Amino acid sequence: MVITTTEIAKVSLGNKAMRVGKSVLSGGSSSGDVITGLRTIDVFIPTISGAAQQGISVNETFPLTNTDPTVVVETANSTFYWIAIGNRG
Questions:
Q1: Model confidence over 39-88: pLDDT tens digits?
Q2: Which of 25, 29, 47, 88 is most exposed by smallest CB count within 10 Å?
Q3: DSSP secondary-structure letter at 8?
């Protein structure tokens, strides 16, 4: 499970924060933990890049505290974008 994440944007929303990122699964992996930089995650919205018919899911119950969301995609070595909203770390 190899995942590389790049932060695209971060926005302060009062006592909350929003992070936007791009993650790439590699090494034949179809799942991985997305490091958002947030202490608590209330909302996590992933969207797959490229194949329109490919599914993506998050194997978590929200809110998350002191842990990162695990994302699962149908095809290994996929790229996806995400938005996370929660409390800063």
A1: 999 999 999 877 666 788 998 999 999 999 999 988 888 899 999 999 98
A2: 47
A3: E
Give the global pTM. 0.89
Fold observed for domain 2-88: Immunoglobulin-like (2.60.40)
Residue 76: half-sphere exposure toward Cβ, Cα within 13 Å: 6
CA distance 69 to 25: 14
CA atoms within 13 A of residue 67's CA, in its CB half-sphere: 11
Residue whose structure tokens are 């790049």? 6
- Sketch the domain layout of the chain as residue ranges: 2-88
